[in-house]
Write a structure and sequence with these properties.
Organism: Microbacterium saccharophilum
CATH topology: Aminopeptidase
Number of helices: 6
Keywords: Transferase
CATH architecture: 3-Layer(aba) Sandwich
GO cellular component, one term: cytoplasm
Order of helices and strands: EEEHHHEEEEEHEHEEH
CATH class: Alpha Beta
Oligomer: single chain
Protein name: GNAT family N-acetyltransferase
Mean pLDDT: 96
GO molecular function: protein N-terminal-serine acetyltransferase activity; protein-N-terminal-alanine acetyltransferase activity
Number of strands: 11
Length: 190
C-alpha cells in the first residue's frame, strides 16, 4: 500500500475553464452573497449567514492551506479563467491511515448548471487520486439536493448509503446520502 503524500501545501489548481485558488479578502462580497442566500443554504448544515459570520468564515477558511493530519481541510475558491468568483470547493482529509477524504461544493446560483462544479470537483479528484495518493473520496449530502446527487453520479461516485432521518437540522429530521469513489474507479474513468 502506498503512503499518502503529506504534508501538501495548497497551490492554485487549473481545469480547462476553472481555477481553484485560496480564498482572499476580495471574495467577501460574493462569498457573503452565496452563504447568506436561503436557497443556497437550504441543504447545507448551516442557516444563511450574516455578513459578520462570513467575515469570520473567510478569515478561517482563507488560512486552511495545508493537508497533513486527519481533520485538515481546504476550502478553495472556484474561479473562471478571468478570475471571477463562482463558488467554493471543500476537501477534508478524513483519515491518513485509510487514505480517505470528503469532498463538497457550493456555487453562486447564477453559476449553477454550467458544469463549473463538475470541472472543479474533477480537478480536486485528480489531485486526490494522483499527487496525494488517496484511496477513497466521499460526499455526504441531503438527498433532496438533486443537483448535487446528479453531480456525484456524473463524477462516477456510487450511492453507498441513505441514512434516514439521520440528523435534526433546521427544524426537521433530514436524511443523509453517502456517495463515494475509489482510486481504481477514478483511474478507470480518466
Amino acid at each position: 500500500m502506498d503512503a499518502v503524500a503529506l504534508p501538501w501545501d495548497f497551490r492554485p489548481l487549473d481545469g480547462e475553464r476553472v481555477r481553484l485558488t485560496a480564498l482572499r479578502q476580495s471574495d467577501l462580497d460574493p462569498l457573503y452573497a452565496m452563504q447568506s442566500d436561503p436557497d443556497v443554504c437550504r441543504y447545507l448544515l448551516y442557516e444563511p449567514r450574516s455578513r459578520d459570520q462570513v467575515v469570520d468564515v473567510l478569515a478561517r477558511d482563507a488560512g486552511a492551506l495545508r493537508l497533513e493530519n486527519a481533520g485538515d481541510y481546504l476550502q478553495p475558491a472556484i474561479r473562471d479563467r478571468e478570475g471571477r468568483f463562482l463558488g467554493t470547493m471543500y476537501l477534508e482529509l478524513h483519515s491518513v491511515e485509510d487514505r480517505t477524504a470528503e469532498i463538497g461544493w457550493i456555487l453562486l446560483p447564477e453559476h449553477q448548471g454550467h458544469g463549473y462544479a463538475q470541472e472543479a470537483a474533477t480537478v480536486l479528484l485528480d489531485l486526490c487520486f494522483g499527487e496525494l495518493g488517496l484511496h477513497r473520496v466521499y460526499a455526504e449530502l441531503d438527498p433532496r439536493n438533486t443537483a448535487s446527487v446528479a453531480l456525484c453520479t456524473r463524477l462516477g461516485m456510487r450511492e453507498e448509503g441513505l441514512f434516514r432521518e439521520h440528523m435534526w437540522l433546521k427544524g426537521e429530521w433530514t436524511d443523509t446520502g453517502h456517495h463515494a469513489i475509489l482510486e481504481r474507479e477514478w483511474a478507470a474513468r480518466r
